[in-house]
Amino acid sequence: MAAASGKDSRSQELAALAARVAGCTACRLAEGRTQVVFGVGDPDANLMFVGEAPGFHEDKQGYPFVGQAGKLLDNLLAGIGLARKDVYVANVLKCRPPGNRDPMADEIEACEAHLFRQIALVEPRAIATLGNFATKLLSGKPHGITRVHGQPQPVTLGGMDTLLYPLYHPAAALYTPAMLRTLEEDFARLPALIAGAAGPAAPAAPEPVAAALAPEPAAEQLGLF
Q1: pLDDT tens, 134-151?
Q2: N or C: where does the chain have the smaller number of CB atoms within 10 Å of the terminal CB?
């Protein structure tokens, strides 16, 4: 009963935070958005994913990681025995930048408190950052995703200790077969990391999923490397 009560409390606090963030006007992105894309998933999740910002489809639906990148994320999760309902998914920015351009420094600064509060409420064992912007923000280091992908690192975020695990962004991997294979291999390590194992990578990577996915327009993947 205590565990259920704790999960209910997290859900209520996340819902209250989402309601507050829905009216945010702290940066210029409020002027062009359709809606704030707060984040979704299990409030008690052991694994949290953090991407860059909503795109066109996310802005319309109010849900992170939809479209082809979202389908790839779902397939990658299925490959390690998980589904969206088992994890929590959010972005660094809660509003779509015009034309899906890269986030600007002042926009990240205006929005980051919302993400850190989400992390503090969910208290995940591991946070998988998707792409450069999430990785640099949460690691506090300037290293790009090409250099650090697949390398877990302990961090303190939102007043709690967790494991940061940088990954290529699914939208970027859609266009590069070698990057997709690397993303699949990095994903295969997630179950052991979540369980707290310190051994080698999982013995088998998920089956390739690229063939089932059609590319999106090029504009949808800007700034993901």
Answers
A1: 999 999 999 999 999 999
A2: N
Residue with more model confidence, 44 or 205: 44
| Residue 99 Rama label (left phi>0; alpha psi -120 to 50; beta) | left
If one compares 195 and 216, the residue with the highest pLDDT of the two is 195
Residue found under tokens 């702290």:
26
Q: Which residue has the higher pLDDT, 223 or 39?
A: 39
Pick the CATH number of 14-199 from 3.30.470.20, 3.40.470.10, 3.40.720.10, 3.40.50.300: 3.40.470.10
DSSP 59-93: HHHT-SS-HHHHHHHHHHHHHTT--GGGSEEEES-
